[in-house]
Amino acid sequence: MSSVSETTIKMTINGQDVTAPKSYTILQAARLIGLDIPHLCYHPELAREGNCRVCLVEVEGARSLVASCVYPVGEGMKVHTNSPSVMETRKTVVELMLANHPRDCLFCVKNQHCELQQIAADLGIRKVRFQGEKREAKKDESNPSIVRDPEKCILCTRCVRACSERQGLDIFSSVNRGFKSIVEPAFGLGLDEVACSYCGQCTTVCPTAALTEKDDTQLVWDAISDPDKFVVVQTAPSVRIGLGEEFGLKSGSIVTGKMVAALRRLGFDRVFDTDFAADQTIMEEAHELLHRIKTGGVLPMATSCSPGWINFVETMHPEFIPHLSTAKSPQGMFGATVKTYFAERAAIDPAKIVSVSVMPCTAKKWEAKRPQLCDSGFRDVDIVITTREFARMIKQVGLDFMNLPEEDFDSPMGISTGAAQIFGATGGVMEAALRTAYEKYTGKELENLDFIAVRGLDGIKEASVDMGGGVVIKVAVAHTLRNAEKLVQKTLAGEADYHFFEVMACPGGCLGGGGQPYPTDREIRQARIDAIYDADAHMKYRKSHENPAIIELYDTWMGQPLGERAHHLLHTHFTPWGERLK
């Protein structure tokens, strides 16, 4: 958005007067009068390319049609977006794309969410006039999180820009020319062979099904239908914030009760809450931070909840590993606890338990397969599905989601606090940890639980917390790996005076994760964030150490945070990428 004082110009679009900021493009100016020019390569959060040519418009006096997503507005400019020349050219461009595109729309995972499909429908294209050779390329299913189907790529380069601009990883690039052009990792390698974080941000911006999450829903159905299996499910805090969007609700709608009811009707034997394990995570991570401060441990300590961030460190900065908290993510802690503590309490053979996670994150699929996550004696988490996959399962069985009753999670691993709820937002893990760390360190009740300084969508946020007695804890929060890189470099250069910092790989945190509903933009992320903090403010318990189920867990079974059993089940270690490949 432009500033209020920015210079404006006057122009006409389709004969209608428009006053627009001088920095705008024609596409942006058209939106001021409620006109959305069709586009594919353009994305409001990414650098402009103008390479798909779907957004072509006519500017009087210009030598040819121009790409409205990159063409700047000008004083007195006269633009036509629906002249016969524009309409025919736009249809031809889209038809040429369709001529080289698979015709499997009915069973494509992006059916009804595909932007190419929608534009073709909007333009009234009912047949393709062009025939000829089609690009043939092998589908890449080499990693556990993301599927790349080059035959469905339309060369919009959104994935190239998202990976570079948001994450700084540059996994994808355009290679070859003409008909042989393709977007792929370097040297045509699979995503399992390059420094991909599996964050899935590429899937959130891809307009077709060239990049999607790996679908593991059939594995869940198989487990549920097996009479010898006891299938439990955990749901991350961001899932209940995003799921409603799949059923027409506005962004930020919280559907916890209906979500629980849906999971029961899908056939899960127990419906638990990842928020319970988020409270566990805070108990371990906050005590670990205090232990490091008191004993001269490695500082700053960095959170370890985001698997995209962990993969980034192991791959790009193994020298940073000592700074990572050894605490598992909530998903990992839940998996280990459900196959030990819960199995023992419920008298269920842990070998029969299938542990399923519903996550907003594609990288969680990779995390669940880490060899370190077997501390229960079994694979701690067996199957991970995203919010999008979960929504597909609900639709598959014909559940009327909007009319489902409000139901509660099962006990004991369904009780949680507001501190766990805010894990979904960037800064939430930090804020939750500070609530517990302050009270455990000082022995005093924290009067103001809201650490506003670590909230919001700024790329990097800093704050300090006065613990009393001359002790001040300095913290920082970063979201996206490009911003994380800045904190890593500052730390490695000896310039970071922080004690603790949080990193989330995805914009806005988990609520902007690679497995969340389409689309996800800044406005949608902010609506989800507002909902998360509002939910926290109305929770009965707002500090992890006040969760009665957590208190019982530690008092009766787990022992002290950082104790022997907690260390074995709830903590982990990290492996440099080079060693993982051996």
CATH architecture of the largest domain: 3-Layer(aba) Sandwich
Large-scale geometry: globular
The total tally of domains equals 2
**CATH class value of the largest domain:** Alpha Beta
Point out poorly predicted stretches.
none
Strand count, sense and barrel status of the largest sheet are: 5 strands, mixed
CATH topology of the largest domain: Rossmann fold
Structural class: alpha/beta
DSSP strand content: 5-15%
Number of helices: 20
Helix content: 25-40%
| Strands, count | 17
Mean pLDDT: 95
Strand line-up in the sheet with most strands: 2-1-5-3-4
Radius of gyration: 25 Å
List the helices and strands and how they pair.
Layout: E1 8-13, E2 16-21, H1 26-31, E3 56-59, E4 66-67, E5 78-80, H2 84-99, H3 115-122, E6 146-148, H4 158-166, E7 172-175, E8 182-185, H5 201-205, E9 211-213, H6 217-225, E10 230-235, H7 237-242, H8 256-266, E11 270-273, H9 274-295, E12 301-302, H10 307-316, H11 330-346, E13 353-359, H12 363-368, E14 383-386, H13 387-396, H14 418-421, H15 428-442, E15 460-468, E16 471-479, H16 481-492, E17 500-504, H17 522-537, H18 548-558, H19 564-570, H20 577-580
Helix pairs in contact: 9-11, 9-15
